Amino acid sequence: MKRTIFSNQLLPWLLLAPQLIITFVFFLWPAAQAVRQSFLREDAFGTRTSFVGLENFAYLLQSPEYFNSLKVTAIFAVSVTVLSMGMALLLAIAVDRMIRSTRVYTTLLVWPYAVAPAVAGILWWFIFNPTIGIMPYVLAQVGYDWNHISSKTDAMMLVVIASAWKQISYNFLFFLAGLQSIPGSLREAAAIDGAGPVRRFFDITFPLLSPTTFFLLVVNIVYAMFDTFGVIDATTEGGPAQATNIMVYKVYFDGFIGQNIGSSAAQSVVLMILVLILTVVQFRFVEKKVAY
Amino acid sequence: MIRYSTASAVALIASLGAANAETTIDWWHAMGGELGTKLEEIVQGFNDSQEDYTVVPSYKGTYPETMTAAIAAFRAQQQPTIVQVFEVGTGTMMAAQGAIVPVHQLMEEHGEGFDPSAFLPSVVGYYTDSEGNMLSMPFNSSTPILYYNKTVFEKAGLDPETPPKTWAEVEEFSKKIIESDAASCGFTTGWISWIQTENFSAWHNQPIGTMENGFGGLDARLSVNGPVQVKHWGNLKKWADEGIFKYGGPVGGDNAPPMFYSQDCAMIMNSSASRAGVIANATDFELGFGMLPYYDDVEGAPQNSIIGGATLWVLSGKSDEEYDAAAAFFSYLSSPEVQADWASFSGYLPITSAAGEQMKDFYAENPGADTGIKQITLNEPTENSKGLRFGNYVQIRGIIDEEFEQLLSGGKDAQGALDSVVERGNALLEEFQAQNQ
What we know:
Chain A is mainly α.
């Protein structure tokens, strides 16, 4: 085995230092602070602090609002993932079958990805605004009374659409690349054997796409759970009646608006543990079943 | 070497200059748009009026954002001298005894000729401790009033000069308006929490919490599930189902004003400080003003309404010079001229009786502009109508909105929704009490 030996012991550390410092300052240190805060009870200004052990966690486990938030997060993450990946796959297949103007469509479809989540939220908020928006007007023509301010279902649909729309572009790019790397000869052979387009898709294309699909699954769930804060904040602010109060938003609301830092920290610790479990499950168990 | 010495010489001169110059203090505020411009104008007026002090105003976003920023800054020991905090943050600020300098103390130690009796009791009462000492300086206080569309009233065959006085009249007028097709809904409202719950309770002399609505101490708890409030929430649900009332959304009810401007709804209950905005948007119809409606079968109604808005808090950990500056600035702010100018521009209430006197001409020229001040001074405040003081109240207001939404969607009845407000709110109050003891 050949190894590169650095005679200078300091140099590798120096080269690593920028990355290590960033990781420490922006990830490890705040995470450690959150763990510390989760065991404390403190007033807003930090003038009175007391150690309360696991009380913040116990309070969470008794709180119906917290369980509601868990449920809402699950529904939201699954819906966003399914919707954005499904739409992206459809679009990618459509573009993949095109002979000309593939590039134009690809470019156009990628645009929404450049839109920041908060902007995407505002955009959809305008489109679906019950008083001034165009969609409620259109929906009223077909007899649907859209009002995401009072209807929990409408509110959830709004945040799912706004969050998924942005992510479709990203998924589309990966699916398209995945589709184009599948040799045409495989599908042709199946066609000669008499398999129809649907059969060819499920027997050949979809299994060969599975590495891409698996990768996107991870990315999308992480996106839906952690990157959609801007969309929620710009559209529903977690309402109505907590119907869209996903865990990340609740951490922000309880900590920054409610000034309950102990509970907010305990929630972030739970979130950290969840991410840990999610990652382990995905890579240890799901990955084995995917044919690379 | 030469370069270094030049640099240090420059630095030395700069520092000498700073030592001679005036004391500069920061004021973090939450006034955007036109109000922000006016605020800067007032600060400029103060800075130009004397040479010892400079106030630097910084806009920090919404009320919660400004408060959060100040708290975070305090924890990092970078706090501003003055911060504007909205009324529901009062409980949190008051409980933070080591973090604030009460205004009465600041004015006694650093100010000249401070006379607490010059202030309107119905405004400063909200911000005094149990001994009657002023803790923060009211800056922008308002109270909810009724705005109505005279044009629609006329179309519906109602007297355009008579706004409804009671809730029974609100219902009756709304039905006429809808039946005659003058508008598609009777009324909407901003702030379910502030207007239809807190002010509603004060207006009917009903408590929303124990121990004088929380003024008595940290162990006060909510009691807003009384029969009068339950009846009103029940009616709002009934009226929402009948199309008489339209819900404008949580917190301030952002969707309510557009419904009034577009003449979908004939009446709106909203802050007296939105007067300028309402006038600017009421271009296609005649606008009328009235007091909040009441139930005439409730004894003691109408009592007086309570205020909302924000006050200025002074944070601890600053030098004597900086506190001198803050005291001088507060004296300037509460002078009748500045108050009258600010109040007539914005629709906020004047905070001193002298300013109220100065505004007599303005009120005479602008009918309806004095509705708010008449309403808060209608009767001597009782322990139910002084205001309220609870910790974690930003979240409790969120709970009020959520439970109201539960009521509207049919998940709970009025009693159930208000019982949940009390139960969930009290859990937060217990938590706050534990944090601050």
